[in-house]
Amino acid sequence: MKKIVGTIAAMALVASAAFADVGIGAWGRGIWAPVAGNGSNVTTFEAASWGPTDSNIRTGITIHGESENIGFAIDMNADGFKGAGIGDTAFIWAKPWSWLYVAIGKVQDNAARGDGCFGQFGWWRQVGPAWVGTMGYGTSMAGEDLTFVRFGNGAGSQATGAIVKVTPIDGLWIEAAFDINSKDSDENFTTVKEAADVYKNGQYGAGYDIKGIGHIRAQYIGSANAINAAFDLKAVENLTLTVGAKIGLTSGASTTVAAYANYKVAMVTIHALFNGTIATNSFDFEIAAGCDVDLGNGVGVNADVRFYNNGATGDKGAVSFMAGVAKGFSNGVIGVAFEGIILSNTNDFYWSVPVKMEYWF
């Protein structure tokens, strides 16, 4: 009997190995500026491209496993060199039927996300003083979640809760995301939320991918009490275009409109971006344009320029720019660039020479 049980267990193990896939992936990026200037001092630093000069680099690894019906993913990194910790995601997912997807844990879904990432966004985003924010005015440089906020990120950071997604017919999806857990000051999950509050602050949306035409979608973001809608055009060859708006429903809330496009001509890709926030007494916006040139053999150059207007404070604005060259490989890249920002009010000039190293596996 024991032999029979052992044989069955061994067969189950072999079967699970045959139909499941467990693997390791990785992504990381670091910026080292041998020299950088703020108008009075010349410094040197290392950072993540999205972080301040004391943020250190991103070295990350992902462990994942999946079969046809169930799986998991854990994203870890050593940010800050304080030991390895959980990054953006750590979740379990299941598909009991082909049309139903459920995930629980620290989870997000990027499928409907509307991005506009190019130029400085992929190098160092924080040239300039604190009032400029991260190359903008109190908000991040436009790039990720530009026209449509990913599910699980409605509150501005990755949800620790659940995502439920239904795909009843080809091209149509209906989705909801909930941020269930709260952390205390020591990063412990200790606060139990009222169910009504969780569902009131959830994300609820739907979209339809029209084959050969585009992807239209809309959502309600409860944590922001806002409607977010976007459309991605797919009908024009070599053109990427996404447009969207986020409309606050609370009295006096702002409205954001955004668009990003790129067009490829031979070895050149041209980028353009607009991101504007309309409030009661102000209009803040960012306008950007850039280009990438593929020189062959993994070598490419890219450049962009951005103008920022801050209507709320009366600042005359700022102009940032960069130009860089990089050598790409099958699983990474190394490059060097020059970045700068000029503040119109004071004519102050901040600059850096970032060396970027990035890997993916």
Short description:
This protein is mainly beta and 361 residues long. The protein contains two helices and 22 strands.
Helical content stands at: under 10%
Gyration radius from CA atoms, angstroms: 23 Å
Largest sheet: 20 strands, antiparallel
Q: β content, as a range?
A: over 45%
Give the N-terminus to C-terminus distance in angstroms.
45 Å
The succession of helices and strands, N to C, reads HEEEEEEEEEEHEEEEEEEEEEEE
Please state the structural category. mainly beta
Outline type: globular
The number of E-state strands comes to: 22
What's the rounded overall pLDDT mean? Answer: 85
The number of helical segments is 2
Low-confidence stretches: 1-18, 130-139
Structural write-up:
The chain is mainly β. The longest helix has 18 residues. It contains two helices and 22 strands. The N terminus is likely disordered.
Keyword list:
globular; 361 residues; 20-stranded antiparallel beta sheet; mainly beta; 2 helices
Produce the secondary structure layout.
Layout: H1 2-19, E1 21-37, E2 42-47, E3 58-66, E4 70-77, E5 85-97, E6 100-107, E7 159-166, E8 172-179, E9 182-183, E10 189-191, H2 195-200, E11 203-210, E12 214-221, E13 226-233, E14 239-248, E15 255-265, E16 268-278, E17 283-296, E18 299-310, E19 315-329, E20 332-343, E21 349-352, E22 355-360
Antiparallel strand pairs: 1-2, 1-3, 1-21, 1-22, 3-4, 4-5, 5-6, 6-7, 7-8, 8-11, 9-10, 11-12, 12-13, 13-14, 14-15, 15-16, 16-17, 17-18, 18-19, 19-20, 20-21, 20-22
